[in-house]
Write a structure and sequence with these properties.
The chain has a single domain (3-166), classed as START domain (Alpha-D-Glucose-1,6-Bisphosphate, Chain A, domain 4, 2-Layer Sandwich), CATH 3.30.530.20. The protein contains three helices and seven strands; from the N terminus they run E-H-H-E-E-E-E-E-E-H. The chain has helices at 13-20, 26-29, 114-146; strands at 3-9, 33-38, 47-52, 57-66, 70-76, 84-92, 98-105.
Length: 169
Amino acid sequence: MKVNSTEIIQVPAAKLWEGVTAEGHLAVAHPYVEVHTHDGPMGPGAKDRIVYLNGLTFDRHFTDWREGEGYTLLIGRPQGRSRSRVEWHIESLGPTQSSLSITVHPDLLHRMPRWLRWVAFQWKVKPLLKAYLEAVTGGIAHWLQTGTAVRRSDHPDHPWFGNTRQSPS
């Protein structure tokens, strides 16, 4: 089971790569992230932490690094047992255009019986995760194309990550 969002962004692939590997970039480009901190520079084996608008905290551990092309990470609560795999992929579409694709392989349903897992994924998880990923890729596109932070109030609230109307930015 996986969910994907791909966004065409009007910047060269090198600028997109620079953006999605910049320290703290999710705090300005992600509509649901309030805080984005790093234990050090992004790269293979790196770790960072994101805090959502509602206070939910996730740690990200980078497991695969393809310079200029993308990375793979595991994400989950700091003391949680569940870790979802997330793949970020960049593709050049020409000198002034590229695409960002984010694919999530969620791990949150693994304890359910197989038939129930499929139903829960299709009816509840997939639509909410798809909307979330589209907000993320759209926010990154906005930030890189305009040079301004994403306005959280331009995005709908998300039941998992917080109320964008009450956020300070």
